Amino acid sequence: MKQYSENNFEQCTKCTVCTVYCPVAAVNPLYPGPKQAGPDGERLRMKSSEFYDQSLALCLNCKRCEVACPSDVRIGDIIQSARIKHSTKKPGLREFTLANTDLVGSVATVVAPVVNATLGLKPVRHIVEGVMNIDHRRIFPKYAFGTFESWMRKQRKEQALFAKQVAYFHGCYVNYNNPPLGQAFVKVMNALGYGVQLLDKEKCCGVALISNGFVNKAKKQAQVNINSIRKAAVENNLPVVATSSTCTFTLRDEYHHLLGLDNADIRESINLATKFVYTLLCDGNHTLKFNPDAARIRVAYHSPCHLERLGWTPYSIELLKLIPNVELVKLESQCCGIAGTYGFKKENYATSQSIGEPLFNAIEASECDIVATDCETCKWQIEMSTTKRVLHPIEILAASLL
Amino acid sequence: MRYDTVIVGGGLTALMCGIELARNGRSVALVTTGHSSLHFSSCSLGLYNAAEPLKAIESLPQSHPYAKLGAEAVESYAARATEILNIAGIATNGTTEANHYIVTPMGQLRQCWLSLDGALTSHNGKELDYKSVALFYPEGFLDFYAQFICDTLGAMGTTVTSHTFSLPELVVRRNNQTEMRSIQVARALDKEENLRALASIISREAGDVEAVVLPATLGFDHADVRQRLSRMTDKEILYIPTLLTSVEGVKAERALRRTFESMGGTIFMGHTAVSHTTEEGLIASVTTSKGITLTAEEFVLASGSFIGGGLAADREGVTEGVFGADVIVSEGNQTTRDIFEPQPFMSCGVATDGNFKVLIGGKAVENLYACGAILSGYNPVKEGCGAGVAVTTALKVADDIINR
Predict the structure, then answer these.
(1) CA–CA min distance A165, chain B (Å)
(2) Exposed e or buried b for every residue in A292-301, given b needs 16+ CB within 10 A?
(3) Which CATH number does A148-282 carry?
């Protein structure tokens, strides 16, 4: 259908379906919900910034409204764009620390044991709450001692031996917190006959910068990533693959929709690991050798919000179904409540945990051994709020190989 | 990705067809832009507006979907649809023998074949089964016409008292007046403390009535809210459907989707089917707005009419966008001036053969079927048969695919 406005708000039929699926409106009566905050409010904001409502800051940017919408209105983009355009609230020290995952990560990985031990202490978490307004109940992800990039540099020669290559967008989480996930990805790709290389220069995708109000810095980092991906995808003709669903979503959609950058020529080259691997396994030319002695595990799959928005959840599920020692339970799709850095903030902690509660209950009731998900922040939230360990589908796949 | 059958659509029709195929062991994918028009449905299903619906069906013109099925098949598919609703945990009342009536939020009576268990109904449209009821609804609740409802029930010989209630959580919700809708009320009533507060208001104010009536806002995540309220108040609790979004409709879609997925079905949510490919006169694949190509043995078009996005109209005409199916548009004006009169455009739809195989360029495609609201030749509003056509044609198509 023809679009007249930037984010097609005129296609809203006021059916209110989005508000039914908004995780925030469900638990916080102060939030008017996506229809009112999005297309309804936009009509007024077009007249004057005075109509900007501070309650828009309550939006998680989960995009579940957009997935629910029968008219394909970009409701979440309307709300986020309005925040970027009209919000007068200046980000502070807390926002700076949460948003600059690159900067904080590169310092923390050098002294990881000290940082992990310190952030694990209750009194420290209370001080963090007092100074930064980060909730003391929130458990920080542990930092790795040494980055994934430094590990990859040691693999360069070995990886270059493979005739076929992919460029891996690892993201901050794999680099600073969980290099084993990156290593699992390398193991799977190698088993499929692909070598893995890094992009020329990778910056944080910027999702946390955008949500914390550092739009100019986000644009700068995005441009670095776009240039690197362009070199890999267009000049060297390599598929670019990421393990994080949120990084993938940000690179593909938010760069254009929220930051206004042109990524049209590289968008289709940016792929998610589960989709890339599943597609290879279905083409008839690729097989994997599974370990027949691998212990049988019951896996509950949680679909992250941004993966739902990408529309690629079925790939992660179908890939897990191919693993012989996995018995799969699909959890009903719902937001876990953390939404990146949102759930770290003291004022959002209660909302964040109430949103996730039905999911936490479903996970406990599923009697699974392990939860699988493609998003790192969902992993933190679920591990903090349930008794279960969370792995990426690629880690489960790697562990089942011979 | 590859499936046995790909269904374009995600509403009642698509889910009925999908569940029937999945429970017969086929791999099925649904492709749906967003959530369905069940969100605007009372979930009382109409078969056909007539004193004896099955008899009336026998004399319909050959172009009508029911005429293609025949009255006998309509009856047996209707029974099977009831069974599937039951499997999904949707409890209904009613038979195909004779219609009964529900009370609408505008205080009108409407014929139906099935109504949800708990809905306020009249078996003959002349009187209720209750001589006295108390109506309770939240202060500031949108689109609920209590006075019309009281007038209608009063005219049927039932004594009605009308009461509003408020709860602290609903007072906060009223800060956003335009969003004071059934879902928000239902979510509040999911909480034990709010339900107890409502129970004590009912116990205090209802008096000695045979039943208490509320808008259909009884629980969103919890299935047993009506029964719990009934136990707390020691009264029978009934409900009247609400305007959008309908809590019972949302719950029904959720229950049907869960059932479909539990049988191994896959839902491509947030995907719009945009194009197709053919091989030797058969449909080979469908590609979605997110660039995913789905191949299958059979394809089912269950994408609804104009509101569902299955049909689109502009000045040039009416089109079906995914397959370019032939569309039947009646001659002359497509609208009539009186909006309460039947509107000719509502009978628009894709052309099919006697077994609902879709015609493209006048020729039936052997592996492409259509069912539900996208079909031509009937007026769902005037005839009260939208849900009936949806479920019976969906099951007929599923049967033909299974036996193919």
Answers:
(1) 23
(2) eebeebebbb
(3) 3.40.50
